[in-house]
Specification:
By secondary structure, this protein is an all-alpha fold. It contains 13 helices and no strands.
């Protein structure tokens, strides 16, 4: 007697139209939490200073920038004390750069997990970005101390802070997803990514104000979504008017990049287990 053939079950990523499957991501939310917590613990494992590195990196970078650019180069800061001016921009920048670097290498670093069990692969770069939020929250504590030292008080603009953090996170997720998918196929990304981020820092108003750029060239600076975001942080903490057109451009570019990265990631996802 011929026995019926067993059904063959194939688990694979959905089509391009299912790029952002929120239902699956929500179903695996606990995995996102555990992978985020794993990344946080691994980051400071066997380090003498531990989580203090979340403070040391922006603080010492701010001190160096204040000496060389604030004192020696006499860089303008729109009437804001230069240490505050630089630190407010360094917080989101360091979060973004660390998150993109970690998420860009996350799929390659999780090869054993990808080849053994199915889950939405977007969770891996997402967890790498979420882990960086812990450092960002710690860095905010130093900013509060600096604002008290320089006599800068809080304003109602602080209500925009959650939206700016969310926008920065979405931008990091978009870039991180895209570069992580590229890194699986092209391992050059691992070496090119730190170099590209270093160049991007000089195209972002961290050490200089937007007002330093001639009016006819500011449109080019606005194409960098971090420009509007960082200017938004400065307006939030120093009670200045928001540049809403610049912030809207940053939000539009961020959302467009996020959608494109999600589609590209889903298209490449089917081959991750084969080539990672």
């Amino acid at each position: 007697m011929n026995l019926p053939e067993k059904p063959l079950v194939s688990i694979r990523a959905g089509g391009a139209l299912a790029a952002i499957d929120l239902k699956s991501l929500w179903a695996y939310r606990e995995l996102l939490y555990f992978l985020t917590w794993r990344d946080v613990k691994v980051r400071y494992k066997q380090t003498a200073l531990g989580a203090a590195w979340a403070i040391i990196q922006p603080l010492f970078t701010m001190i160096i920038f204040s000496i060389f650019f604030g004192k020696l180069a006499n860089m303008p800061s729109d009437g804001i004390p230069y240490p505050l001016f630089a630190y407010t921009a360094l917080m989101p920048w360091i979060f973004f750069s660390n998150a993109v670097t970690s998420s860009g290498n996350s799929l390659v670093g999780s090869a054993n997990l990808i080849t053994k069990v199915y889950f939405p692969r977007m969770i891996i770069p997402g967890a790498a970005v979420a882990a960086g939020l812990v450092d960002l929250m710690v860095a905010f504590g130093i900013l509060v101390i600096l604002m008290s030292y320089y006599g800068v008080g809080a304003t109602w603009n602080l209500l925009m802070l959650p939206a700016l953090i969310g926008l920065t996170t979405l931008l990091a997720i978009g870039v991180g997803m895209w570069t992580s998918a590229l890194n699986v196929k092209y391992r050059d990304i691992r070496y090119a990514l730190p170099f590209a981020i270093q160049l991007l820092m000089f195209a972002t108003p961290i050490i200089y104000p937007v007002s330093l750029i001639p009016e006819r060239w500011r449109w080019l600076l606005n194409l960098n979504p971090l420009t509007g975001i960082i200017e938004g942080y400065r307006a939030t903490f120093f009670g200045r008017p928001f540049n809403w057109p610049m912030l809207a451009i940053s939000a539009a570019i961020t959302l467009a990049l996020l959608v494109y990265a999600a589609f590209y990631f889903r298209r490449m996802e089917r081959t991750f287990a084969d080539i990672v």
